[in-house]
């Protein structure tokens, strides 16, 4: 009898423990597995979750909009956000902006090794010991600093010469010191199965046949932001040139590009984001430099590299009206990089391959390049404009500096939204407020958006996933009215959810709707936000830095 009693007590304790485990798991992770979410039942599941949320609606008050062009210099962070990868060792030196594939770490650090050796050599020029300082900075970002006048180094070695043409067009004096300091080539990385299919249909695989296949909706590829990425800008020009080689800005080129762009799944902010999309199987191909391809064994086994566009041979330019002693240092350094020892090192790191590749594309002047970027901005969504909802955290934890930066990010970032798109605004704390219903981004909607953002104040807890659910419901209703729009969500938060639904409650639903959710974290739990964005290959931005405005500007410029 005693044993039976003990057994009964143990059984009751075990049941209680099991109940607690299940209860805690539901609290922490939600009820994702309770209902299998499919295309057929997703709307019903969303409606059931939505009805649990107390949604408050407010009338939008118009704000004063600024019609002046965006001020790039004011959006750029302090230049010291971008690291010095090699310090100067003497008082007489030059600072060189270098693209990241050669001034980073490991196999991306070729130029750093050359520069360190140069500084150790103790060259004497004009009676003084000289050295170089290298700053690691992406070519597009470097161009923004230089053309805006916010910070101009002594020299610049971008991935290709296109950026120098843009700088020239902005009245910054440039002098070509070396056309090539290290060789590289951009390309389209294509899965082997798709490569074989293209070869079978088109007889050869090159940029022209790939772009034709894209226009025919037979091939899905991604490319990077042509305002920020050397490879992305090069690909944009290659596509336009494919449609009209005599005039890349002609009506024929524009119409061809618009048709092509309608079949582009997405344009990535970064190569990393694009590669993650490729891993998921969403892409048949994407753009990449050969040096990166060479250093990626996982890609070499499954993909074929097809070169396109202008070569990426890292030209070196002197900038501004430099004194002779600085010009002499730059010339000496260019000469130093060409030594056999360093060119062999470059080969070891994946550079200086495909030397026989010659581009059919010719160098294009800076004004035409800027016009091509603007054409891309207008036509990049093809026949599918964006409908986006901004979901902003106004909980108590966002009080002070985080809310100030959130407002600044949205007020400056909204200047980069395309007029053909539609936007709405939702805020959340304990509950959710619909601040601005979705509408086309006319001057009237812009004024309402500015007014809504300016009036934001913090209060209460953090119901992040309730805010996301409301945005999803708004977008579902918008897609029913306008089936050709592409839905997007931007979440701006500190990431610490403590109210309402959980990630587990909504994860399956987000996946079923396939709506990309871009997350911007202010002093946030970045891992949680990354997990939300990764569901549908969107990007996450860490805004715990003074470059948040510039980062968000770039994100909105690409996606909106």
Key traits:
560 residues; alpha/beta; Rossmann fold; D-Maltodextrin-Binding Protein, domain 2; 3 domains; seven-stranded mixed β-sheet; 22 helices; 19 strands; CLCR
List the helices and strands and how they pair.
Elements (H helix, E strand, L loop, with lengths): L1 H28 L12 H9 L4 E3 L14 H4 L8 E3 L5 E7 L11 H12 L2 E2 L2 E9 L2 H10 L6 E3 L4 H8 L4 E5 L7 E6 H11 L4 H9 L5 E4 L5 H14 L7 H11 L5 E2 L2 H9 L5 E5 H5 L2 H6 E5 L8 E4 L4 H14 L2 H9 L17 H14 L6 E8 L7 H13 L8 E7 L3 E9 L2 H12 L9 H18 L4 E8 L9 H11 L3 E5 L4 H9 L5 E3 L5 H12 L1
Parallel strand pairs: 1-16, 3-5, 3-6, 9-10, 9-11, 14-15, 14-17, 17-18, 18-19
Antiparallel strand pairs: 2-5, 4-5, 6-13, 7-13, 8-11, 8-12, 15-16
Rounded to the nearest angstrom, the distance between the terminal CA atoms is 74 Å
- CATH C-level class of the largest domain is Alpha Beta
Q: What's the CATH H-level superfamily name of the largest domain? A: von Willebrand factor, type A domain
Structurally, how many domains make up the residues? 3
- Main sheet properties: 7 strands, mixed
Spatial arrangement of strands, main beta sheet: 1-16-15-14-17-18-19
Quaternary assembly = single chain
Low-confidence stretches: 6-33
How many distinct beta strands? 19
The DSSP helix count reads: 22
- Structural class, please? alpha/beta
Binned, the helix content reads 40-55%
- The percentage of residues in β strands lies in 15-25%
Shape: globular
Mean pLDDT: 90
Return the CATH architecture of the largest domain.
3-Layer(aba) Sandwich
């Amino acid at each position: 009898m005693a044993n039976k009693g003990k057994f009964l007590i143990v059984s009751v304790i075990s049941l209680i423990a099991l109940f607690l485990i299940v209860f805690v798991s539901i609290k922490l992770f939600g009820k994702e597995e309770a209902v299998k979410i499919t295309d057929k039942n997703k709307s019903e599941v969303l409606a059931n979750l939505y009805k649990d949320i107390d949604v408050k609606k407010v009338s939008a008050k118009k704000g004063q909009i600024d019609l002046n062009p965006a001020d790039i210099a004011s959006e750029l962070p302090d230049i010291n956000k971008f690291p010095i990868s090699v310090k100067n060792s003497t008082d007489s030196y030059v600072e060189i902006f270098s693209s990241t594939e050669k001034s980073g770490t490991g196999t991306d650090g070729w130029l750093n090794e050359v520069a360190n050796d140069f500084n150790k050599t103790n060259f004497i020029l004009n009676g003084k010991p000289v050295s170089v300082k290298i700053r690691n900075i992406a070519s597009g970002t470097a161009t923004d600093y230089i053309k805006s006048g916010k910070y101009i180094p002594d020299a610049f070695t971008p991935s290709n010469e296109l950026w120098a043409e843009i700088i020239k067009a902005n009245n910054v004096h440039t002098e070509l010191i070396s056309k090539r300091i290290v060789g590289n080539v951009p390309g389209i990385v294509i899965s082997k199965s798709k490569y074989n299919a293209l070869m079978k249909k088109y007889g050869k695989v090159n940029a022209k046949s790939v772009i034709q296949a894209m226009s025919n909706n037979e091939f899905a590829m991604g490319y990077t932001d042509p305002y920020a990425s050397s490879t992305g800008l090069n690909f944009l020009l290659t596509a336009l040139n494919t449609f009209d080689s005599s005039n890349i800005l002609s009506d024929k080129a524009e119409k061809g590009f618009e048709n092509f762009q309608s079949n582009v799944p997405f344009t990535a902010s970064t190569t990393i984001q694009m590669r993650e999309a490729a891993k998921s199987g969403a892409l048949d191909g994407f753009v990449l430099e050969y040096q990166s391809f060479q250093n990626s064994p996982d890609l070499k086994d499954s993909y074929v590299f097809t070169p396109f566009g202008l070569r990426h041979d890292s030209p070196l330019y002197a900038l501004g009206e430099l004194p002779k002693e600085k010009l002499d240092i730059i010339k000496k350094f260019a000469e130093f990089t060409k030594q056999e020892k360093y060119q062999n090192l470059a080969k070891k790191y994946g550079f200086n391959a495909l030397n026989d590749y010659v581009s059919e594309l010719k160098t294009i002047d800076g004004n035409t390049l800027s016009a091509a970027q603007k054409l891309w901005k207008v036509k990049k969504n093809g026949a599918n404009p964006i409908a986006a909802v901004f979901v902003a955290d106004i909980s108590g934890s966002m009080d002070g500096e985080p809310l100030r930066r959130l407002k600044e990010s949205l007020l400056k970032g909204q200047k980069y939204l395309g007029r053909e798109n539609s936007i709405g605004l939702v805020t959340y704390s304990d509950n959710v407020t619909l601040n601005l219903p979705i509408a086309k981004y006319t001057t009237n909607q812009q004024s309402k958006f500015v007014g809504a953002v300016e009036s934001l104040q913090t209060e209460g807890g953090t119901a992040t996933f309730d805010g996301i659910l409301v945005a999803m419901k708004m977008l579902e209703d918008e897609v029913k009215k306008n089936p050709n729009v592409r839905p997007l969500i931007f979440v701006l938060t500190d990431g610490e959810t403590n109210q309402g639904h959980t990630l587990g409650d909504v994860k399956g639903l987000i996946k079923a709707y396939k709506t990309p959710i871009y997350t911007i974290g202010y002093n946030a739990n970045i891992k949680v936000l990354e997990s939300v964005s990764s569901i549908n290959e969107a990007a996450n931005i860490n805004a715990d830095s003074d470059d948040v405005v510039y980062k968000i500007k770039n994100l909105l410029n690409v996606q909106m």
